Structures are given as C-alpha cells and as structure tokens.
Amino acid sequence: MRPHRMFWGHLLSIVTVLIALIVFFPILWMVLTSFKSEADAFTYPPPLIFHPTLDQYEVALGASGYFHYLLNTVIVTGFSALVALLLGVPAAYSLAFYPTRRSDFTLMWLMSTRMLPAVGVIVPLYIIFKNLGWFDTYHGLIALYTAMNLPLVIWMMRSFFMDLPYETLEAARIDGAGLLQELRLVILPMALPGLVSTILLCLIFTWNEFFLAFNLTVTKVPTLTVFIVGFKTSEGLFWAKMSAAATVSALPVIIAGWLSQRQIVRGLTAGAIK
Amino acid sequence: MRKQIEVRSRPWMHRPAIIYMIVLTQVPVLFTLYYSVTNWNLLRPDRPRAFIGLGNYIGFFLARDTARIMLNTVVFSVGVVVLSLVFGMILALLLTREFRGRNLARTLLITPFLIMPTVSAVMWKNMLFNPAFGLISSTLALLGGPRIDWMNQYAMASLITIVTWEWTPFMMLILLSGLQGLAKEQLEAAQIDGAGPITTFRSIILPHLTRYIEIGVLLETLFVLNIFGEIFTTTTGGPANYTTTLTFNIYLEAFKRWNVGRASAFAVIAVIFANIITLLFIRIIRHDSRTGETA
Hints:
A: MetI-like fold, 2 domains, globular, B: mainly alpha, MetI-like fold
C-alpha cells in the first residue's frame, strides 16, 4: 500500500513540474530567442545549441529609442507610487486605528473606484486632458496612475496595520509618542514588509498598464507597453529583436511579482483573501 | 473588533485621499453621463452640440453590430473565466501537496500573469500563432498537418487562449489560498472513511472553496471585461468585428469614429455592468466580515 502511494505521489509531482514548464515555455523560448541572431531565431526545429549573442539587445535598446520609453515608465511608475503612498498611508492609518461608522462604507467605496473600468472615463479624460494641456504629459499620467494605486495602497496598508500587535502601539502611546513619532518609529518599521509588497504591487500594475498610456500619450511620455505594441505588425517578425525588447521591458515586473507572490492575491482581492 | 484608546476620528488623515479619488474617478463619470445624452462628434465641429436624450442608448440597442459585440463580449469573458477556473483548480490542487520543486513550479506558473500584457500579445501572435513561421504551425507542418492562420481563422479562440494563459495563475493563487485553509484532518478523515478522490473533491474541497470561487470568478470577470491591449495588439477587433468586445468597441467609437456621444453611452453601459459585479463582490466580502470568517 505505502510504496504504491509513494509512486503515485512522485508521479504527480513530476507531472506538476512538467505542466509548469509547459506553461512557462513560451516565456523561456522568448528569452532564449533574444540571445539568438535573426537567422538562428527562424531555424526550425529550433536549434538546441546556438551562439548566444547580445546583438539583438544592442539593436532593440539602441536604435529604437527604448531608453526614452524606459525613462518615461520609471518616472510615471515611481511618482505615482510615491504620491499614492503619501496620500494612502495616512488614510490607511486613520481607517485602521480610528474607525468610525462610515469607515466600512469608505473602504467599499474606495474599492468600487478601483473596479471602475477605464473605458468608462476615457472620453472625458481625453477631452479634459486636451483642454488642460495635460495630454501626453508626465503629470497627466501620474495623476491617473496615482488614482489607480491609491485604493490598493489604502486597502493593503490598512490590512497590514490591522495585523500589527496592538500592545506595542498601546505601549508607545502610554510612553507619550506623538502621532508622527508613532507612525515613523513604531508603525512603519513594523509594517515595512507590507509596505514593500504594496510598493511592488503598485509597480506591477502601473508598469504594465496599457489602455490609458496608449490613449493619453503620443510622443513625449509613452511608456514601455506602448513601445512593445510597435511590434504588432511586420516589425514583430524580427523575432530576436522583438524578444530582446520584450524581455527587458517585462523583466522588472516579473521580478517584482516573484518577490511579492504571497501578497498578490491580497492586493487583487482588496484584502478579502490573504 | 479591536478596542480603541482614543475614540475621536482623524478625518484629515483620510480625507485628502478620498477627495482625490472623487475628483479623478467620480467627476469623469458624471462627464461621461452628460456626454452620453448629447450628439457630440469631434469629426463634426460644424454641428452644434445638442441634447438628444436617450438617443445614443436607443441607437446602441438598435445598431446592427450590437448583437455581435455583446455575443463576443460574453463568449470572450465566459470562455476565459471558465477555462481559467478549470485549469486554475487543477493547478491549485496539484500545488497544494508538499513536494520538492513546489516553489519553483508555483513561481513558473504565476509568471504569465506578471508578464506585460502587450508582451504576451506580440509574443503569442508572432512567435506561436504566426501561420508561416510560428512554433505551433511549424510543429503541425512537421507532423504533416496544415498550416493554420490562427489569429485569423480562429481569432476568438486564439484570443481566449492567450488571455486564459495570462489569467489562469490569478485563479490558481486564489484557490491555493482557499486550499491552505482546509484542515488536513478533514481530508484524512474522509480518506479513512474510504472516500475516493472524486468524492472528497465534491463533498469536502468544493464546498470549502465556494467563496473563493465566487470571489475569483467575479473579480476575473471584471478584469477580463476591461481587456484592451491584447485585443488591440493581436486582432484589432477583427476579422470584421469578430473579436470586438464592448470595451474595444468603446475605443473604436471614441478614437476611430470620434463619436463622443455614442462612445459615452456605451461607456455608461460598461460602468453599470462593472458596478453590478462589484456590488456582488462587496456582498460576499461583507457577509464574511459579519460571520467573522477570515481567509
């Protein structure tokens, strides 16, 4: 009975890893292709051994203006996360430690704003941005991405604050810690892991956002997602070059996601599932 | 419920965030509502902007392609959600066992969800689905099969494949969280009672996961209804309008036909859909907080 069960257990484990490899295969193949010459990329069946080269990275990064898009993405992602934290952490603190009868409604309402489809507001945003001169500017995109991040920050940070041991806070207050001291010296250090995963989640969502970036920018501040769409036509048949560009564009979020995989569900379900 | 030392609230700490969200999300919705009852068209600056009541909404229900677009939207979102639920369930059940390589497998499996959607789209379109050079076609040809132009002949199925690949990890992670809350003793007891794997799944695992399935299905539906980048990058809504969803149609109406009024009316319909789903979601999680169940 026992060896029989162990056999099936091992088989199941092997099957699981195999499925994972199959699911991951397109990404692996793309990364491998990015190190090939265009000629090698199109050889079929794909050669198992090839001369790895960084040529495609040079082409993809140098000539196509990749760094322009990268810089835009970094600026927009960074500032929108920063502003969302500045507005969101105090809000989360207040909602976690000073709940009122309205707090519950406020949280639900905040979540409903996160669920608002971007197509529902794209037309007025386009028109308002055009009129205000915010179209194709950093502050325009940052303002919107902040709104995208803010409910996430409040929900996540509130749920992390609620997990803190209450006695420590009580002790700090009895010791006469002021509000700022309490936040800076007691709460934030304890909630630091939560803060880091919140920042990573903001990064994941803004870095990958396409709809707003595509419709509200042209030449000055388009982000990497818009850059990649350039490969949708015949450009995309330069596989090696496309793979190199795609790999470097997607990599930061993949790493951020791997690091924060335990928190992704909490962030996406507004704390309903931890 | 935690006890409080100070009872007074500190509204100045959360008010800026709330005002910010009102200005950036609720005000634009009011504008959308207002535009939706006008005949504003950016291509017709000569025409005075006029109030036309529910004209755009009636136009939506009467339009020739509305049935097609709604059908596409339903096929696309139901297809993706059901498939990713099934695959996500299988993967979660496989991953919930302890074994060596489990962390690696989970990390590999969540990557499609993390990868930039436009990257997934160009990769699948050019490297896997391309009829002449794509890996799938080339492999089929090697085995003597036909070369198929997937993104053209089976546009919707191909699109569903790509998006299911991206969203299965989401469902898997939610169900995995659910399975972690399932007591080992319960499963062992079932096994001792002689319950086979199928009976165990149906009478113990599935009832336990109901709430997680509900949350996963509602949220994924919400996100999948908003999908734009993958459609734009792979099929641009075509061939003809066979992969044009409600979301994609709003984009076409707004930025290809510049019909502000009609695009806004469609957008209001999309917002109503989203709000219904959000309300259902809120009902589930509020029910949890009342019954004190935590995940």
